[in-house]
Specification:
CBS-domain; globular; Tetracycline Repressor, domain 2; 489 residues; mainly alpha; MgtE N-terminal fold; three-stranded mixed β-sheet; 22 helices
């Protein structure tokens, strides 16, 4: 049974992530940002500090944590120093971005950091020390409470993307022969432990046996043994389980608190629903960034050179593919004449349509894979449906495009080319269908291929699929254009 220190923080808050803000929160952020900018641009330092202290007292430290990321780095410690109390400073540190934490760690001395970490739950402390130099972390662990330091070190040794990093080591756990009244007394004596994380039941050997819903604690008499109101634990994970596995379990079975056990079924931690939401946001940030071909861990105040280095590697693939495409077009242009010359004008249309269709297929497939929905049994059905959808969509748009071009030739009373009425319409229509089919095949099988060789499929859904699709669809379009013109025109 885990017992926290008496001065630990009781309110769980979470770091800043990418989210869609409603209009009310957006207005609050804009107003607070404007207030802070005006206060820090005052000419008289005394008035400025008075204004900062007033803003820090009037607004939530969570809102201030979000607003701090828009301030110049050198003034962020001033805002932190004027927060009203230590709990507010903890909320600020946990909810702000990594760039601000790095700045604050340089500003704060060891004495202040020791007080902060002694008042902070271990799972929150592990989160913010990601932005602290390893040498200072070791020095700080030697200064804080030894029990707290041990818990932080134990959590830190787990992989950042594992269940061990998501869990908290502070929870309520009682033996089976205890009564509801005895458990309630202990809960009241330890208000710093989050009661919402659940109440777990152990045998005398310390092995996990079940859990008691909060409702059962309230509606049953105090003398009722916990063994009579407990329920079996149907789902649990180990500390080495991946965060994807944790997310799948919590989402599918709507679990409010997921126990973490070791190989001997001893309870070592608990993952709450809020922890899983945080993991989902973190995973979504990384996936979106990888699909765009960049690094997810950079901030708005990073220098231009770092921004370039995080984006450049995958853009090199696009550059090389573009040079190859130029070679293909040059080779076709040397052999083109008459009607084929007009086919070159539709290359952006072909590559754009086929690229979008391929990217749609790959994005849907990556999402299914990320959510764990692509099992061995459903793989063939999912792939078949995506292939049919892509080919059907490309066919509809290809036929429609050809019909529109032919209709324009008919209405204007003149062909788009002097060679034959409707010739370009036929080439573009068939070429668009072929290009979209190529984009569909690439969009469906590229993520599967990269997943097989150990590369994150989200990476292939961005620059790689787009670049290869441009080359593949344009080559197929030129071959179709040459073949159709040779056979019929």
């Amino acid at each position: 049974m885990e017992i926290p220190s008496n001065d630990e923080h009781d309110e769980k808050t979470y770091p800043q992530g990418i989210e869609l803000l409603d209009s009310k929160i957006g207005r609050i952020d804009d107003l607070l940002k404007e207030k802070l900018e005006r206060a820090f641009h005052k000419q008289t330092s005394k008035v400025r500090l008075h204004d900062i202290a007033k803003i820090a007292c009037e607004h939530s430290p969570i809102d201030l944590a979000y607003a701090a990321s828009h301030l110049p780095p050198n003034v962020r410690p001033v805002l932190y120093d004027h927060l009203p109390n230590r709990d507010a400073k903890i909320k600020f540190l946990v909810n702000t971005d990594g760039d601000t934490r790095v700045t604050l760690f340089r500003h704060l001395n060891d004495v202040e950091l020791r007080k902060i970490f002694n008042s902070m739950p271990p799972d929150e402390a592990v989160w913010i020390i990601e932005d602290m130099p390893e040498r200072r972390f070791r020095r700080l662990m030697d200064q804080i409470d030894s029990k707290k330091a041990g818990r932080i070190r134990a959590l830190k040794q787990h992989d950042r993307k594992s269940a061990g990093r998501l869990m908290t080591s502070e929870f309520f756990a009682f033996t089976m022969d205890m009564t509801i009244g005895e458990a309630a007394v202990y809960i009241r004596d330890n208000p710093r432990i989050d009661f919402a994380k659940g109440i777990f039941i152990l045998n005398h050997a310390g092995e996990l046996q079940g859990y008691v819903p909060t409702r059962n604690m309230m509606i049953n008499p105090p003398h009722t043994p916990l063994r009579q109101v407990m329920r079996p634990v149907l789902h649990k994970v180990t500390a080495e389980s991946t965060r994807e596995e944790v997310i799948d379990l919590v989402e599918r079975y709507r679990i409010s608190s997921l126990p973490v056990v070791d190989i001997d079924n001893y309870l070592v931690g608990v993952i709450s629903h809020e922890d899983v939401v945080e993991a989902m946001e973190d995973l979504a940030d990384e996936t979106i960034a990888r699909m765009a071909g960049t690094n997810e861990r950079f901030t708005s105040h990073d220098p231009i050179t770092r921004r370039f280095l995080t984006r450049a590697p995958w853009l090199i693939v696009t550059l090389l593919a573009g040079l190859v495409n130029v070679g293909v077009m040059s080779s076709f242009q040397q052999r083109a004449g008459g009607i084929l010359t007009f086919a070159l004008f539709f290359v952006p249309l072909i590559t754009g349509m086929s690229g979008n269709i391929g990217l749609q297929c790959s994005t849907v497939l990556v999402r299914i894979m990320a959510m764990g929905g692509l099992s061995l049994g459903s793989r063939r059905e999912t792939i078949t449906k995506e292939l049919i959808s892509g080919v059907f969509t490309g066919s509809i748009f290809g036929i429609s495009c050809g019909f529109i071009l032919y209709l324009l030739s008919f209405l204007t009373g003149a062909s788009l080319t002097p060679a034959a009425p409707g010739a370009v319409a036929a080439i573009v229509s068939i070429g668009l269908i072929g290009g979209c089919c190529a984009g569909t095949l690439l969009g469906v099988f590229a993520p599967l291929f990269f997943a097989r060789i150990g590369v994150d499929p989200a990476i292939s859904a961005g620059p790689i699929v787009t670049s290869l699709n441009d080359f593949l669809s344009m080559t197929i379009y030129f071959l179709i254009a040459w073949g159709v013109s040779t056979l019929f025109f």
